[in-house]
Every structure is written in C-alpha cells, then in structure tokens.
Design a protein that fits this description.
With 425 residues, this protein is mainly alpha-helical. It has a domain of 42 residues. It has 17 helices and five strands. The strands form two sheets. It has a three-stranded antiparallel beta sheet. A hairpin with a 4-residue loop joins β1 and β2. α9 runs antiparallel to α10 and α13 packs parallel to α16. The radius of gyration is 24 Å and the shape is globular. It binds carboxymethyl coenzyme *A. The site of carboxymethyl coenzyme *A has 20 residues, from loops.
C-alpha cells in the first residue's frame, strides 16, 4: 500500500489529472470543483440524492457498523448501555461525551426534573387541537410553539442558555407527549410528579386514570420503557437528526430545530414505521395469510415495514434487544396476539431470497410497536415515544454542530434540468 493519502482523478473529457487529498476515508466534495472543462465552467459536482454516500459532518457521538450490526454511543456498545445504564445517564453521555459521576447524575436528574412542567398556555395551546388530531402532529406543533415561550433560546452560542434549553426539552418532552395522549382521549391532564423517575413519571402522566386516583407505574414496564428510550436515543445522521442539524445550521433556536426533527421522524419510512408495522400485522391478520402479503412485497406493491435499513445490512442490534425485552413485557401485560404473526413473518423473511439478496433484516421498529401496543399505547403514539427518546440524540447532535467550526449553513447544490432561458410572449 502506498504512503500517499490522495486520490488521482483523470478527467477524460480534457485529459487533465488532479490529485485530491483523502482524510478520514473521505474526499472533500469541494475539491471536485477544480475539475473544469474551461475557465468559466462551474466545476464538477457530486450528485447524491438521499445522501447515500455523503458525510455531512464529523461526529464523535454515535458509531454504527451497518455490515456487522454494531451500534455504540460514545464508544459504549448499545447492548452494555441497555443492560447497565438508564436513559438519563445515556442522555448525559450523548450530550457531554462521558458517563456522569454520581454527583453529576444527581444534578442532571434534578435539573431535568425541575423542568418537567409546561407553561399553562402550552396546555391551552394543546386544547386548541381537534379531538382526533394525531398526537405526532400535536407534538410537532407544540415543540415549535415552545420557541415562543423561551426567547432566550435564541442565544445559541451561550453555553448556559444552551444547557437550559437542554434541560427544558428533555424535561418537557414526556409532559407534552402525555398531554397529546390525554387530549386525544379527552381525559384530564396529569401534572408531572417530581418524586418519580423519568419513565415512571411519564407512565403516570399517561395512564393515571384521573388526577384524584392513585396510580403505581409497573416497575417492569417503566424499566422496559427506559431501555426502549436508550435504544432509540441516537442513531447518527438519520433523517430527523439531519433535519435537526439542517435547521440548526441556520442558527434557529433548538425548539424550532426539534420541531423540524420531529416532523421528519413522523414519516412512515422513519419513526412512523413502528406504527406502520402494527397496521401491517393487523392487515395480515393471521399466520396463514403471510405468504399472500409477501407476494405483494415481492411484486413491489407493498413494503415489509420494520425491515430494511439504509445503514444496517445485517440484523439491527436494537431489534435483537427489543425482541428479548418483548417477552419480559408480555409477562406483565399478556402476550400481544400479533407476536405470532411477527415471529413467523420474520422467520420466513430471513430465509426468503427477496430479503436475503437485498440484505433486509428486522430493524428497531419491527418489535417496538408490539411492546408499546401491549403496554396500552394506541399506534398513533408510537412515534411520539420514539421522539421523546430521540430528543437526547437531537440535542447532542445540535450542540456538536453549534460547536463545530467547520459547519456552515446547510445548503446543497442542485443539478438544474429545467428549461433554458425563455421569454414570455
Ligand atoms: N420491504 C420490501 N422491500 C424493501 C424494504 C422493505 N421494508 N426495504 C427495502 N426494500 C427493497 C427496495 O424496494 C429496493 O428493492 P429494488 O432494489 O428491487 O428496487 C431495495 O430493497 C433497496 O431499498 P431502498 O429503498 O433503496 O433502501 P434504502 O436504504 O433507501 O431504504 C428504508 C431504507 C428504511 C427506507 C427501507 O428499507 C424501508 O422503506 N423500510 C421499511 C420502513 C421501515 O421499516 N423504516 C424504519 C427504518 S429503522 C428506524 C428509523 O430509521 O426510523
């Protein structure tokens, strides 16, 4: 192997040769610009719809090896974090780069807990939504509305201000998610209870029958939710994180950025897939109708939701943990009747040429919806739960971007294929 860390390009149109540096296994796209047909030529662009092979940033937060099915946050394997840590510890790790000490963790939890309440006008704002509004739509709108409550959030280069918005967003996400849920049921809102853990408090705000009734969140379910939150906390430059960073690159406040990120997560190809999985399993209805559904997938008429991933070309490590977790949850809630269909679907798909040749394996969403459903969540809440968890990652990525001197406003180029100059007449 040569010592030279460069790429030599010969432009066959002109016969000219260029030498471009390679750093961290990448070339800088801007280095292609010098490749021109003539002096007034704009220069070569790289065309990459869907950013399949374009790194938009350098990041030290999350590492994924999609071929091997590896996921690590700040170097720690996801399996270890899911087993030995809590969501709030992981949120700290993602945002600050290290696991918190005992004192740091206490302070962190205290500060987040102190920010779980929302302004009464946020409640009124949510009251304005129609009774059957999708909770994800409510969450996206309310996240955006939060920016009007905290004008100090515009001070994004002030570390103290950023820290405060981080507390607020992590603290208020479960509260807003629960408000959206209760609103859709027409049930009275439940205020946060600062004596409970993050996920216990969330379950309490969601499922407490009324403000005057006592409700004890099941410890197995609150632990399971905590693990699910860890698994969903970050996933490097996915569609919603890219939205967070893209809006963040214009120096918008973090609430506006998070609203954009949540909107991106809403789609069925991204965080909306867990909802789509449950709808698909219901549509299939019974194990003997799986082959009929798969025939439609083979014919490209349907997708097998919960399968496939842009990065993982192997079993998604999160799906493996979730599958195990499902059994623990079902011990408390009773088995989800859709589980048998899911298991059989997975078994068949994993030996089916269509899926094998395309390296399509179960992803994080294949089993998570079954757990959420068994816990009593309607399908429309699944992506909301994903958003609550992903807030840690969005904030970590946003802060990394703000501190990254190499970042500029996200503004891709295009290849114009429309009409040349013409005139009206
Ligand atoms: N069911 C059936 N066919 C599929 C699926 C699927 N779930 N996923 C990909 N394919 C096919 C696709 O039709 C294409 O076939 P062909 O080469 O014959 O045209 C081939 O596999 C490559 O697919 P692609 O769409 O080019 O792959 P991508 O990397 O652009 O898309 C994906 C990744 C996640 C959007 C896609 O796999 C998908 O739509 N999956 C279903 C939705 C889903 O489960 N999303 C959750 C992703 S994990 C959580 C998250 O990130 O939010």
């Amino acid at each position: 192997m040569s010592e030279k860390n460069t790429l030599t390009i010969i432009d066959n149109r002109t016969g000219k040769q260029y030498e471009i540096p390679i750093q961290n296994g990448a070339i800088r796209a801007i280095d292609l610009r010098q490749i021109k047909l003539s002096q007034d030529d704009f220069g070569l662009l790289s065309y990459d719809p869907g950013f399949e092979n374009t790194a938009s940033c350098k990041s030290s937060i999350t590492f994924i090896d999609g071929e091997k099915g590896i996921l690590r946050y700040r170097g720690y394997p996801i399996e270890e974090l899911a087993q030995k840590s809590t969501y709030l510890e992981v949120a700290y790790l993602l945002i600050y780069g290290e696991m918190p000490s005992k004192a740091q963790l206490q302070e962190w939890i205290r500060n987040i807990t102190l920010h779980t309440m929302v302004h009464e006008n946020i409640k009124k704002f949510m009251d304005g939504f129609h009774h059957d509004a999708h909770p994800m739509g409510m969450l996206v709108g309310t996240l955006g509305a939060l920016s009007t409550f905290y004008p100090d959030a515009k001070d994004i280069f002030d570390m103290q201000s950023r820290t405060k918005q981080i507390y607020r967003l992590l603290g208020k996400m479960p509260t807003m998610a629960a408000l959206a849920y209760r609103h859709s049921l027409g049930m009275p809102y439940i205020y946060p209870d600062n004596d409970l853990s993050y996920t216990e408090n969330f379950l309490n705000m969601l499922f407490k029958p009324s403000p005057s009734t006592k409700y004890d969140p099941d410890p197995v379910l609150s632990k399971a939710l905590d693990v699910l939150f860890i698994l969903h906390a970050d996933h490097e430059q996915n569609c919603s994180t890219n939205a967070m960073r893209s809006v963040g690159s214009s120096y918008a406040d973090p609430y506006s950025c998070a609203a954009a990120a949540a909107a991106a997560l809403y789609g069925p190809l991204h965080g909306g897939a867990n909802e789509a999985v449950v709808r698909m399993l219901k549509e299939i209805g019974s194990v003997d109708r799986i082959s009929e559904y798969l025939e439609q997938v083979h014919a490209h008429k349907k997708l097998l939701y919960g399968f496939g991933h842009r990065i993982y070309k192997n079993y998604d490590p999160r799906a493996r943990i979730i599958k195990e977790l499902a059994y623990k949850v079902f011990e408390v809630t009773g088995k989800n009747p859709l589980l048998d269909i899911a298991l059989e679907l997975e078994r068949i798909a994993l030996s089916d040429e269509y899926f094998l040749s395309r390296k399509l394996y179960p992803n994080v969403d294949f089993y998570s919806g079954l757990i959420y459903q068994a816990m009593g969540f309607p399908a429309s809440m699944f992506t909301v739960l994903f958003s609550v968890a992903r807030m840690a990652g969005w904030l970590a990525q946003w802060q990394e971007e703000i501190l990254d001197k190499e970042q500029g406003i996200a503004r891709p180029r295009q290849i114009y294929i429309g009409p040349a100059t013409r005139s009206l007449q």
